[in-house]
Amino acid sequence: MSTVDTRQMSRDSLFVLAKIKVEGDLKGTEHRVKVRNLSSGGMMAEGNVKVVRGSLVTVELRNIGWVDGTVAWKQDDRFGIAFLENVDHKLVLAPPPPTSDIGKHSPRYVRPPLDTSGPEPSKLRKI
């Protein structure tokens, strides 16, 4: 295999999870895959999904939603997906937009502080 990269689009190496549906799957199963790299025109996914070159798929990407594509190549448990329309792949790396439920389902260490004023000096214990 050549070490020369002939792709024209810049891509980001990353590790995020995505959901994928394969057209023709009678059960409509959503599979979880690892996104190994992503560009505006496609992505490389890794997971135990039965696809062949040319399979039509739909991928749910964080902050973007469902994107249609086709399998461009497959090797072992990795495969490439060419999107039917370009996406803004930088959105996937952005933090999720704030919601009105912020903090309700998040662990305490990732929630914003409830009170940023700090304790009253008169209530601090002197050592």
Structure notes:
Helices cover 3% and strands 39% of the residues. With 127 residues, the chain is mostly beta strands. It has a domain at 11-92: Thrombin, subunit H, CATH 2.40.10.220. The chain starts with 10 loop residues before the first strand and ends in a 34-residue tail after the last helix.
The count of strands amounts to 6
Give the overall average pLDDT. 81
The total of helices stands at 1
Report on the biggest sheet.
6 strands, antiparallel, barrel
Gyration radius from CA atoms, angstroms: 21 Å
CATH topology description of the domain at 11-92: Thrombin, subunit H
Strand content: 35-45%
Class by SSE composition: mainly beta
- CATH architecture type of the domain at 11-92: Beta Barrel
Helix and strand element order:
EEEEEEH
Jot down its keywords.
127 residues, Thrombin, subunit H, elongated, single chain, 3% helix, mainly beta, six-stranded antiparallel beta barrel, 6 strands
Topology:
Layout: E1 11-22, E2 30-39, E3 42-46, E4 56-61, E5 65-75, E6 78-83, H1 90-93
Antiparallel strand pairs: 1-2, 1-4, 2-3, 3-6, 4-5, 5-6
Question: What is the gist of this entry?
Answer:
The chain is mainly beta and 127 residues long.
